[in-house]
Amino acid sequence: MATTVLVIAVVSAALVVGAAWGLSGHLPAHVEGFLVALAGGALIVSVVTELVEPSLEDGSALAVLAMVGAGAVVFTALDYVVDEVWGGQSGGGLLAAITLDGVPENLALGVALIGAGATEVAALAGSILLSNLPEAAGGAKQMADNDMDRGVAFGLWVTTAVVLSASALAGNLLLEQAAPSTLALVRGFAAGAVVASLATEVFPEAYREDHQSTGLAAALGVVLAVGLGLLADG
Fold it and tell me: Which of 72, 78, 89, 225 is the most exposed place for a label (fewest CB within 10 A)?
């Protein structure tokens, strides 16, 4: 449990550090885009190796793939609400988008930690951390640019970090005794949501900020995630 709490805390703390960075420092757009694409590439590997493949081993392939589709549908629907109701570029919209993106990622992290050591989920945790840093930095900076009080903006990001930590702990604690077939369905749903977030949020944002290096950064993310996986297996 101590390892689980430590991994979740470090991943969620990246939101707080990123927000502080965005509110007080300067984050060049091309650096933000590169980091986001790097994290996206790592998440591609993590979704396959930490979520989809274990799910296919423990559950019905048809049911798991159906849940992948369901996860994508739910995320897409909620993402549409964020854009149309709150406005994707507003402070509330940005915060909602990060939360909708982060909940399935952290749920997946919590489930992946069940029965596993920290090194075995290093790729998933590391890619989420890399994604959280620039997303929080860019979101907090935009809130400040929209005349939101910096203290209020920072408080919102701290609250978001707490919510995402809770989702990871919930995934870990509530499903610890669940049957492998049930975990397979949960992992499949989380995988679909993360894939949808990559397509609609992560890579488009990276391309807007640093279109020349997006492909290279994503490929580097894949290499790093595979390398972490090999180290864990070793």
Answer: 89
Check pLDDT > 60 for residue 103: yes
- What is the 8-class DSSP label of residue 211? T
Rounded CA separation 137/134 (Å)? 5
Question: Does the pLDDT value for residue 118 go beyond 60?
Answer: no
Give the distance, in angstroms, between the CA of residue 32 and the centroid of all CA atoms in the same chain. 15
Tell me the residue length of the chain.
Answer: 234
Please, what is the Cα angle at 233 between 227 and 234, to 5 degrees? 90
The three-state (H, E, C) secondary structure of 111-153, written as one string: HHCCCCCHHHHHHHHHHHHHHHHHHHHHHHHHHHHCCCCHHHH
Whose tokens are 């591609």? That residue is 44
Q: Could you report the per-residue pLDDT of 71-100, keeping only the tens digit for each?
A: 999 888 887 877 777 655 555 555 666 676
Question: Which has the closest alpha carbon to 138: 56, 19, 44, 227?
Answer: 19
- How does residue 129 score in pLDDT terms, banded at 50, 70 and 90? confident
CB–CB of 137/32 below 8 Å?
A: yes
Helix (H) or strand (E) holding 110: helix 91-112
Q: What is the CA radius of gyration of the chain?
A: 17
